[in-house]
Amino acid sequence: MADKRTRPFRRIRRKYTFIILALLSGIIGSIWIAIDRYTGSAIVVNSLGETNEYAFAIQSMLIGIIVSFLFALVLWIPISKKPFAELARKIKERKLSGSEQLKENQSAISEKRQFSFLGQLIDPQYKGIRLPNKKMFLWLSLSGLLSGISTFSYFIIIKDMDLSIFLPASQFVIIYLIIGDLFVDKARPCAPEIQAIIMIFLGVILAAIDFTSSSGSFNWVNLILVFLVLNTSAAVYVVFQKKAVATKFKSGENLDATNIRLWTLLFMAFFAIIFSLPFMDAEGFFVFRSTFLPALFPIALSMLLVFIARILYVRALSMGKMSIVNSLSAVSVVAGIPITVIFGFIWPAYFPLPGGEFAWVVWLLRGIGAILVFSGIIGLSMSEVKIMILAKVKIGIVCDYERIKAISGVESVSVITGKYDLMIIIRSRTIGRGYQPIVEKLAKIPCLDDFHSNTIMKEWHS
Q1: Per-residue pLDDT, 9
Q2: Are 406 and 355 in contact (CB under 8 A)?
Q3: CA geometry: angle at 315 spanning 312 and 319, to 5°?
Q4: Please, how many CA atoms are within 13 Å of residue 281, restricted to the half-sphere of its CB?
Q5: Average pLDDT, stretch 143-171?
Q6: At what angle do helices 191-208 and 163-170 cross, to 10 degrees?
């Protein structure tokens, strides 16, 4: 039985823990966007009360770097004697490197899991701030570049767009990821993918309709920025983040979620500031200086929430399926409506709500749009399948296991006993997308023969 004193997360069952983490990441995401909307509309403004989005972006990046590094240092605080015991063990190891007794003590220490730092309560792999290696540096810098483009466009969009519209629109990145997969796999979209694309697209359009406003909430500039800049850069950002997560140190360890977020933020801030500076004039620098202190607390709070939400999201990914985590975190789409209403009653000047005789129609359309986007994401995620393929290895032919593992969709390869020699686990959004293309690629490998597939209907985890 797990020791709850050394494993505090296990006070809640694993299944419920990752559900809570994923939901929290989504809800926190909608809250920090609302805080940004208030800060940009009420504080970082010029003498005419107009938001200076470029000054706001630079302020957020500078304050975000400071807050994130301070928070990472706080997470580095030891909460047990293990760091000091680890140092003493290493000294003893050097003196008695050949002792078998020492090896037994090391294995006993590794089996007894204790949290060494405060940050390991939310990210068990966190061992303090670490420098990435060259490959990680490449992927993190590219992630930062794309994230900087997305962030720069975000501050321009959030200036005018309603929160309940922006959140569904920002989920369009999923469509681009699907389309990217289709091009990579050279496959046609299947029914669940087409349904998801249509539902998410219609949901965004319905949420954007506001005929009670004279100017409309969704102008052409916002339309281009959301669909062609923000979502596109966010989709490519996800690809580079996956590369960074998969890259290992020479010791075989991966960079933990906290450090990935920290270094990505550093590069993101650098590029976002570079993109904003050309648009800064004398008035912009005046707004930056005069509003820096008043905006310090709300921006610091927002950036801290962003940092925590990202860590919770990656932590949830380590405990459950990516499809389910994405579905749960997409609750931000629905959460955006009540948060908009609450902030609208508190600060009506900065969160204008639809008014007039037909305001209820606008809210109805926004609600239907949010539900369509949320349903499209869940429908796409729930169609994911996991298939076990059993295969035989031809006698006298050396099998290239790395080639099998490199096939897109292959999750693991295991050597087994019995009638078959290999067990290959594949994961895909649908049976059609997963089974046929992957089996065709497996059939081209010379050492494999006689395939037998089984769809995994349900899994149980400890």
Answers
A1: 42
A2: no
A3: 130
A4: 3
A5: 84
A6: 160
Backbone φ and ψ for 254, nearest 5 degrees, come out as -95, 160
- In single-letter form, the type of residue at position 298 comes to P
Three-state SS sequence of the chain: CCCCCCCHHHHCCHHHHHHHHHHHHHHHHHHHHHHHHHHHHHCCECCCCCECHHHHHHHHHHHHHHHHHHHHHHHCCECCCHHHHHHHHHHHHHHCCCCHHHHHHHHHHHHCCCCCEHHHHCCCCCCCCCCCCHHHHHHHHHHHHHHHHHHHHHHHHCCCCCHHHHHHHHCCHHHHHHHHHHHHHCCCCCHHHHHHHHHHHHHHHHHHCCCCCCCCCCCHHHHHHHHHHHHHHHHHHHHHHHHHHHCECCCCCECCHHHHHHHHHHHHHHHHHHHHHHHCCHHHHHHHHHHHHHHHHHHHHHHHHHHHHHHHHHHHHCCCCHHHHHHHHCHHHHHHHHHHHHHHHHCCCCCCCCCCCCHHHHHHHHHHHHHHHHHHHHHHHHCCEEEEEEEEECCCCCCCHHHHHCCCCEEEEEECCCCCCEEEEEEECCHHHHHHHHHHHHHCCCCEEEEEEEEECCCCCC
Residue 3: its pLDDT value, please? Answer: 44
Domains and CATH numbers, the chain: 14-78+120-382 (no CATH), 82-114 (no CATH), 385-456 (3.30.70.920)
pTM above 0.85, yes or no: no
Confidence of residue 240 (pLDDT cuts 50, 70, 90): confident
Structure tokens at 290: 């005069």
**In this structure, what token pair is assigned to residue 177?**
């990821």
Structure tokens at 261: 């977020």
Residue 23 has a pLDDT of 80
User: Using one digit for the tens of pLDDT, what is the confidence trace for 282-296?
Assistant: 999 999 999 999 999
